[in-house]
Design the sequence.
C-alpha cells in the first residue's frame, strides 16, 4: 500500500508558466467564455479563472466546460501557480449551474455523457495541485455550488450570494459531486436536508453552517467576495509552495481513509518535503530571525 501511495503522491514536473490569455476549446465559435489571468506585483503567484458567459449567467454548457478543462490541464503542471482563484465576470452571479436549455436538446445518451464530463471537471478542480478558492459574489446554484465545493476554500458575499443544490426542484439530483462533497463538508444529516429540500442559502447562512470559510458585506461594484478571496490568497503566497501542495495532498487523501492510513499518507508527504530547498531555507530563516524566501524547490 505504501509503495502505491508513494507513486501516487509525487508532485508534478516543473512546467513553463502560462501567460494571461482567453481560452476557447473544441473550435467553439464566438467569444471565449473564460479568461485565465496571471496576476503580477504583490499578487504574483495568484492565477484567476474568470467565468464570463453573461447570456446564460455562467451556466455550465459544453463550451464553458471544455474551456475550463483546457485551462486546468494547462495550469496544473505550472509550478508558478501558487493559488488558483475562480471568480465571475458577470455581476450578481457566480455560476447558475448546468445549462438546462442546452440539455433539453440532448438525447438521454448525450445527457449521460455530458454529466460524466461535468463530474470529471469537478474532479479536476478538486485534484488541482495548488490551493483553489471560489469567490461567490452572486448566485451559485446546482452545478455552480458543486464547482465551489470542489474548491479548497470558499468566500461569499453575505447578502448577494445565494447557493444551494437545487436539483430536486428540477426533477434531478446533484450529479457532479454534490451528493459526495456536501456531506463531507457539512455532515450527512445536514447535507441530506439541503439536497432533499433544494433549499437556497444566503452567504451569511452558508457561513453559519460551515459551507463557506468567509463572508463579507457586498460593495457597490458587486465584487466584495472576490477581493476577500484575493486577500486570502495573499496569505497563502508567502508560505512554502511545495509544503502547501503536499499538505493539500495529505489532507485530501487522508480524509478518504482510516486514520492509520492517513498517518501513513502524512508520513509519505512529509518525507517528500524533507529534501527540498525550501525546508532548509525555512530552518535557516528561523535560525537567523528573518522572513524566509521560498522559491518552490
Sequence:
Amino acid at each position: 500500500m505504501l509503495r502505491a501511495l508513494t507513486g501516487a503522491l509525487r508532485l508534478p514536473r516543473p512546467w513553463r508558466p502560462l501567460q494571461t490569455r482567453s481560452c476557447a476549446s473544441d473550435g467553439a465559435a464566438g467569444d471565449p467564455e473564460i479568461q485565465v489571468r496571471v496576476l503580477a506585483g504583490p499578487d504574483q503567484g495568484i492565477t484567476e479563472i474568470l467565468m464570463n458567459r453573461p447570456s446564460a449567467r455562467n451556466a455550465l454548457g459544453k463550451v464553458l466546460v471544455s474551456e475550463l478543462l483546457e485551462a486546468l490541464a494547462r495550469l496544473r503542471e505550472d509550478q508558478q501557480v501558487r493559488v488558483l482563484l475562480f471568480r465571475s465576470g458577470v455581476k450578481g452571479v457566480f455560476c447558475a449551474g448546468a445549462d438546462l436549455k442546452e440539455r433539453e436538446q440532448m438525447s438521454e445518451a448525450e445527457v449521460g455523457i455530458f454529466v460524466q464530463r461535468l463530474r470529471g471537471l469537478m474532479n479536476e478542480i478538486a485534484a488541482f495541485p495548488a490551493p483553489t478558492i471560489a469567490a461567490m459574489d452572486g448566485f451559485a446554484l446546482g452545478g455552480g455550488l458543486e464547482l465551489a465545493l470542489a474548491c479548497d476554500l470558499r468566500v461569499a458575499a453575505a447578502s448577494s450570494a445565494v447557493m444551494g443544490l437545487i436539483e430536486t426542484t428540477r426533477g434531478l439530483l446533484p450529479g457532479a459531486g454534490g451528493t459526495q462533497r456536501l456531506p463531507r463538508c457539512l455532515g450527512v444529516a445536514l447535507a441530506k436536508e439541503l439536497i432533499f429540500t433544494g433549499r437556497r442559502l444566503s452567504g451569511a447562512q452558508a457561513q453559519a453552517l460551515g459551507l463557506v470559510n468567509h463572508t463579507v458585506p457586498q460593495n457597490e461594484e458587486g465584487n466584495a467576495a472576490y477581493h476577500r478571496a484575493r486577500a486570502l490568497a495573499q496569505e497563502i503566497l508567502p508560505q512554502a509552495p511545495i509544503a502547501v501542495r503536499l499538505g493539500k495532498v495529505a489532507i485530501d487523501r487522508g480524509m478518504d481513509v482510516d486514520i492509520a492510513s492517513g498517518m501513513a499518507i502524512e508520513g509519505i508527504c512529509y518525507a517528500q518535503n524533507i529534501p527540498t530547498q525550501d525546508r532548509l531555507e525555512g530552518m535557516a530563516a528561523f535560525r537567523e530571525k528573518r522572513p524566509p524566501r521560498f522559491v518552490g524547490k
Remarks:
- The CA atoms of residues 9 and 249 lie 7 Å apart.
